[in-house]
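Hi Y.,

Following your request, here is the sequence exactly as I used it, all 219 residues.
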Amino acid sequence: MDYLGIILRLIVSALAGALIGLEREHKNMPAGLRTNILVCMGSALVQIVNIEIFKQYRGITDVDPARFGAQVISGIGFLGAGTIIREGASIKGLTTAAGLWVVACIGIAIGNGSYFPGLLVAFLAYATLNLVKSIEKRITKRSPYFEVEMRMTNVPGQLGKLGKALGDMKVNINSIEIKENWKELITIYLNLYLPVNLDKQEVIRKLMCQDGVYSIDQL
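Below is the corresponding structure, written out as C-alpha cells. Let me know if you'd prefer a different format.
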C-alpha cells in the first residue's frame, strides 16, 4: 500500500466520521463531531496496520487479517457504554452508542479499501439519525405506551390519589419508580398504558390538577 492510498483512506474515514458526528453534535449528544471522527479514523488506521502486518508476516507465521478489526469492534463497546445514561425510568444514549459502533465499522471498511460499502453505510446512518426520527415520533405519538416524570410533595396518600386519577381515566400503570429528592419532594417515574382514543396531553392535564403536583415531563 503506497502513501497516497493510506492518506486517502484516512481522509475518507475522517470525512465519514464527521458526517455522523455533525448530526450528533447538532443534537448536543455526548459523542459529537470530534469523537466520531477519531473513532472512524482510528478504526481505519487499525485496519491499515492490520493489512500491513499481514503482508509483512504472510508465509512466515500464522496471522489472522481480521484480528485487529475484531478487537476494535469489541473494544468500542466500552466507549459506547460511557454514552449511555440512566435517568429514572428512562435510558438515554443508546442511539449514540450504536452510532459509535457503526462509525467504527465504517472506519474498518474504509481502512480495508472498501470505500463503497463504508461510505454507503455512512450516508445510510446519517439518514437514519435524521429521517427515521420523524417517523419514530409519529409512531410514538400513536403508541398506547406513555412515560412521564412527575415531581410532587411527599405526603401520605399521594400515590393513592394518583392511582385513583389514573384509574378514573382507565389508564394502566405498567411500572412505577419513586426517587426521593428531599424530605418534602419526590420524583415519580410512571410507565403507563393508555386506552384507545385517550390523548396523552389530556392525561398530563388531569394529573397536573392533583394537589401537590409541581411538574410533569413526558419522557
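The helical segments are 3-26, 33-57, 67-81, 94-111, 115-142, 158-168, 200-208.

Thanks again,
Q.
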